Backbone:
C-alpha cells in the first residue's frame, strides 16, 4: 500500500484541526483544574478544623506534607547578601528570554550566553 504524501496546505489543515481539538480539551482541563483547586482548599479547611493531617476515603488517602519554600519579599535586601556570601546557588539558573532579546537587539553581548533560535509554528484559522 502506497503512503500518500500530503501537501503543505493539507498539513496546515490537519494542524489546525489538532490545535482546535487541543483547545477543546484545554477548556475541559481548566474546569477540572478549578474543581481540584476548590477541593484542595476545602480539604485543607476540613482537615485543619478536625486537627488532622491525614485522612482516608474508599479510593484515596490524603496527607498534608508541609514543605518550606522561599518567598522573596525584598529582592533589594536579598541580592547584596547573595553577592556578599557568594550564595549564587540560591538563585535558579535561568535567563529571562525577553530581557536577553532586548539586550541583543541593542547590540549588547551577554557573557556566558549564546544565541539559540527556537523555531515555532504559528497556526491561524482562515
Residues:
Amino acid at each position: 500500500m502506497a503512503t500518500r504524501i500530503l501537501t503543505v496546505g493539507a498539513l496546515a489543515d490537519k494542524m489546525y484541526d489538532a490545535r482546535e481539538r487541543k483547545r477543546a480539551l484545554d477548556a475541559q482541563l481548566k474546569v477540572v483544574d478549578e474543581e481540584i483547586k476548590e477541593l484542595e482548599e476545602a480539604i485543607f479547611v476540613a482537615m485543619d478544623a478536625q486537627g488532622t493531617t491525614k485522612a482516608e476515603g474508599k479510593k484515596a488517602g490524603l496527607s498534608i506534607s508541609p514543605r518550606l519554600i522561599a518567598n522573596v519579599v525584598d529582592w533589594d535586601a536579598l541580592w547584596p547578601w547573595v553577592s556578599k556570601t557568594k550564595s549564587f546557588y540560591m538563585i535558579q539558573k535561568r535567563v529571562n528570554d525577553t530581557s536577553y532579546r532586548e539586550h541583543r537587539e541593542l547590540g549588547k553581548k551577554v557573557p556566558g550566553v549564546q544565541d539559540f533560535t527556537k523555531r515555532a509554528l504559528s497556526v491561524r484559522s482562515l
The first helix runs from residue 8 to 50.
